[in-house]
Fold:
Amino acid sequence: MTCNWCERDINLYKLCEYEDHNVCKSCYDKYIALYPNRLSGCPYCVGVVEVVILSVEDDIVPLNTSIPDEVYVFIASVSFCCLSFMIITWVYVFYILNK
Ligand SMILES: [Zn+2]
Ligand SMILES: [Zn+2]
Structure:
């Protein structure tokens, strides 16, 4: 058994059930450094699957998430409170200055 990537037979990892998915420790470390977002495990089995799932999730999530109405109500009410507070403060300041 030799590593599929560098053809050496030292520090081989047994990462999955498949006999021909052989990767050695130094190649696997380089692979993890290149693709830090991929799941740990056999690069032939897990790595590709994880990338496909991620890209599908990225496509679905923006479609299914919309801002709920409560957020708009909350922002509107907070803005209204701030505006009212500013107006009341200015009215009070003018009232004191014009006394
Ligand atoms: Zn190798
Ligand atoms: Zn595999």
Q: What stands out?
A: The chain is about 60% helix and 5% strand. The chain has a mean pLDDT of 83.
